[in-house]
From TrEMBL, chains A, B:
Domain spans labelled Bacterial purine repressor N-terminal: 6-74
Similarity annotation: Belongs to the purine/pyrimidine phosphoribosyltransferase family. PurR subfamily.
Domain Phosphoribosyltransferase: 112-247
Gene3D superfamilies: 3.40.50.2020, Winged helix-like DNA-binding domain superfamily/Winged helix DNA-binding domain
This protein's name: Pur operon repressor
Taxonomic lineage: Bacteria, Bacillati, Bacillota, Clostridia, Eubacteriales
Source species of the chain: Clostridium estertheticum subsp. estertheticum
Keyword Nuclease: no
Length: 273, 273
């Protein structure tokens, strides 16, 4: 069996831990992978932990007990988050992004893995203390972002649909009013997708008045489950009218100005940088 | 400025490279991050490269030239892929997954980040030599998997919708016949989402006759673009009738047997293990 050097072991440990965020990895996984003693692996993990701390690249936590081990919790410095928010504002402010109806075209942003990954880490970091069971989103544009947050938090993603599908078995449907236009819409979710008594976080690409978030809260009640947090990439604060109080966003949108350009700024959570 | 040890540098380099699959990272990024000479960083990278090779955890490639550097290409051993395929079969074979209409409930699988990540690595590895521009999928169930493949290949994700949305600007819509039921459906895609002359891979959760894949090929023609590959998690080979010839899958589904249990096996690509 191969023997690995410390350099090689920390390489492998870093890869396995960071690819499995918020999942407890037993030290046995590493003692077997590297054919090394537990004490050796423990020393390796100290190195990985200290390095990630120093580089503000997340942290390694120890989980005690029989099912214990170590797990990686994602993280990013305030400074890097701020730089990211500024960059996204710069991209979205481009004049040709304003489309008929005064919407901003941001589909490409929401489907860009590099951007979605960074946004996902920022939002997941805000919820990493909550001990949630599911990340919930509504189809379609917020799915990649919600997926990244679910992955970073080590939990299952749940996608609420506008129409029930035959391939999902029996579903629960509710009606909700979009807060901005008061149009009645339907959202439905497979009975099998959420266990009773679960704690959830709702992730979406864009929030206007928050009608969708209210819909999610009501839908979760049908599953005797609870919404503990809301996170969006862009918060539209143009009207000022919000149906939900607590949520976090990365960017704020205040409307299209007289020159036909979108006005965007990083959200308050970055102000202290 | 901090000085970092070799152990610390390989930890940081591993994290940055594996978190940015198929993206060329200039050595300057690392010389600045660690305040180290280029020759030192090059030696660190050799260690990371050799370790990932030895552990079958992907590979590190050198990109020459002014815009050069190193990049991480995801990879997984045939043995691990086979173990993964077997595990998914075991999960999907559970009797309570058969739902009215003889569908298998697999939504939870498609929205489980741990599973989707592994499946994404397997499919992306099969396409890593193709030099593609976009990973394309059709909403909704295949989105997380397509997102992972796009991320691993370092390209943009494109999501084709069933109805055009006002927030996506002008769209191109085509009609297509689902190969199994011959029902006519519509797919539409924002004009802005694909550049002319692009090369794409289509990723989906499930393939029956392949009517959707044919639809994607025709839709891409409207963008003067080309489909170079197709990858799905589950291939339904019950009827044997396929509209497309070349595609890869991880699992094959041959129908529900007389005892009401789904019959599933790992696909041929794993047979040589």
């Amino acid at each position: 069996m191969n023997k690995y050097s410390r350099n090689q072991r920390v390489t492998g440990i870093t890869k396995v831990l960071t690819e499995n965020p918020n999942k407890t990895i037993n030290l046995k996984t590493f003692t077997e992978l590297f054919n090394a003693a537990k004490s050796t692996i423990s020393e390796d993990i100290v190195i990985v932990r200290e390095t990630l701390n120093e580089l503000s690249m997340g942290r390694i936590e120890t989980v005690a007990g029989a099912a214990g081990g170590v797990k990686y919790i994602c993280g990013v410095s305030k400074q890097e988050s701020r730089i990211f928010a500024d960059e996204i504002c710069k991209i979205l402010i481009q004049k040709d992004r304003v489309i008929p109806g005064n919407f901003i075209y941001m589909t490409d942003i929401m489907y860009n893995p590099e951007i979605v990954h960074k946004a996902g880490v920022i939002l997941a970091s805000a919820f990493s203390e909550l001990d949630i069971d599911y990340v919930v989103t509504v189809e379609t544009k917020g799915i990649p972002l919600a997926y990244e947050v679910a992955k970073m938090l080590g939990v299952q993603l749940v996608i609420v649909r506008h129409d029930p599908k035959v391939t999902e078995g029996s579903t629960v449907s509710i009606n909700y009013a979009s807060g901005s236009s008061n149009r009645i819409q339907t959202m439905s979710l497979s009975r099998k997708s959420i266990k009773k008594g679960s704690k959830c976080v709702f992730i979406d690409d864009f929030m206007k008045a928050g009608g969708t978030a209210i819909g999610i809260i009501n839908l979760l009640k049908e599953f005797e489950s609870e919404l503990l947090g809301i996170g969006v990439l862009v918060d539209n604060i143009e009207s000022g009218h919000k149906l939900v109080e607590e949520y976090i966003s990365i960017i704020q949108f205040t409307g299209i100005n007289n020159e036909g350009i979108a006005e965007l700024t990083p959200s308050e959570i970055f102000e202290k940088v």
